[in-house]
Amino acid sequence: MRILTLSSSLKSDNSFKIGLGLVILFAAAEIFSTGYYYIGRARTGGAPAQASIVAVRTPSAPAATPSSIKAESPAAEASPPAPSLSDQLLNEAVELRDRGDTANALARLQEASGQDPKNAKILEELAKTYESTQNIVRSNETWRKIQEMGPSAGASFELADKRLKMGVPTPGVAGPGLPGPSRLDIGSSPAATGGSSEGSTLGITEATVMETPDPEADTNLMLRIGIRKPSKTVIDHTKVKIQVFFYDTVDDKDIKLTDADVTYEWLTPNHDWAGTNPEILAVTYLRPKNKVLSSEAALSAAAASVNPGKKGRASKPGPSAESGQRKYLGYIVRVYYHDQLQAVRAEPSKLLKLYPPSPTASP
Fold first, then answer.
1. Which residues lie across from 139 on neighbouring strands?
2. DSSP code string of 329-349
3. In this structure, is the dihedral angle defined by the CA atoms of residues 338, 349, 196 and 186, taken in order, positive or negative?
4. 31-61, pLDDT tens digit by residue?
5. Which of 266, 267, 265, 262 is nearest to 314 (CA)?
6. I need a surface site. Which of 96, 323, 327, 351 has the fewest CB within 10 A?
């Protein structure tokens, strides 16, 4: 009976334990499922929040893209285009002129002007380069081209207008005097503007006209002339003869040899061409106010004939019966050696056509 009782209690204990284990497992399953449920909800709730953040940021990204494109677009438009051939030639010419290579600078500018003949800036630099080579005739021609363009040429037009009003003598235009320095045309052919003859012993390297302010004179000008020999050439300075002729316009139409007072002075001490540097001669043109005009016969004395072996003198024209308003026009310079023509300069150049130089000097 005890055995039966014992057996019955043992079975009862096992059943209790099994039931308790099932309850614990069920409870654990419930806790696990509940936890899984809430964890799943938490993850599900986080996903929309994250999506909303993405949704907020996403529109900002496309908005930034057009703005960045717009920011880059002006930069691309502002980048300078490749310079044209005429602009390249212009820049090269200015650099060459600044280095003193005016011959190649002129070639570049003339080519650039051929590419773009209406470019006022190219014409301006061309005129400046002609001035630097003392070719005033061509310089003024170029300034007039700019002036003809009118105000559309901008600053170049204003500069051209100013240069042409400075009173630099040009063909067909005469003024009472020069307000500043005027350099001559030495950059053209000898036949046109009086360059040195081929194989000559002496040449003219400089010819510059400057006005001296003088309240007692209508016109007071100084012509500075540089004369140089080739290297290693021996010069007999007593055989050198330099003739300087000044010319006036009478009543703005007729051209006459001047009746002004003409004097000369050597600015270099020896003027014997023993060295290689040019000898500098200064010739002065002075027209006092209310000057009495000279006769045609006396006008020939107004030319300064300079011989380095003799003392300088002033020409004094006599009284005149000729009437008319005279204005300074220009000059001709002739250089002879052993009475043979060596070089000629003239401004304006038309004086050479009116008064061609003699190949030999008069005694």
1. none
2. EEEEEEEEETTEEEEEEEEST
3. positive
4. 877 776 666 665 555 444 443 334 444 444 4
5. 262
6. 323
Output the six-digit token pair for 118.
Answer: 């209406």
Residues in contact with 243: Cβ distance below 8 Å, sequence separation at least 6, in sequence order: 303, 304, 305, 306, 332, 333, 334, 335, 336, 361
For the question of whether the overall pTM of this predicted structure is more than 0.85, the answer is: no
Q: How far apart are CA 259 and CA 295, in angstroms?
A: 8
CA distance 4 to 14: 15
Beta strands in 191-324 (DSSP E): 203-211, 217-228, 240-250, 254-257, 261-266, 279-288, 304-306
Q: Beta strands 304-306 and 240-250: pairing type?
A: antiparallel
Is the CB of residue 143 less than 8 Å from the CB of residue 127? Answer: yes
Listed residue (260, 248, 255, 243) closest to 329, CA to CA: 248
Q: Which contacts qualify for 307-312: CB closer than 8 Å, 24 or more apart?
A: 307/238, 307/240, 307/241, 307/242, 308/237, 308/238, 308/240, 308/242, 308/266, 308/271, 308/272, 308/279, 309/237, 309/238, 309/240, 312/263, 312/264, 312/265, 312/266
Tell me if the bond preceding 359 is cis, omega within 30° of 0. no
Q: Which of 212, 228, 226 is nearest to 328 (CA)?
A: 212
Report the distance separating Cα 345 and Cα 207, nearest Å: 8
The helix/strand/coil state of 217 is strand
Residue 129: what pLDDT? 86
The Cα–Cα gap between 229 and 279 comes to: 9
302 close to 315: Cβ distance less than 8 angstroms: yes
Quote the pLDDT of residue 115. Answer: 84
In the block, residue with structure tokens 């001709």: 332
- Give the CA count within 13 Å in the CB-facing half-sphere of 122: 22
Task: Return the number of other C-beta atoms located less than 10 Å from residue 173's C-beta.
Answer: 14
Which two tokens mark 19? Answer: 């039931």
Beta bridge partners of 327: 249
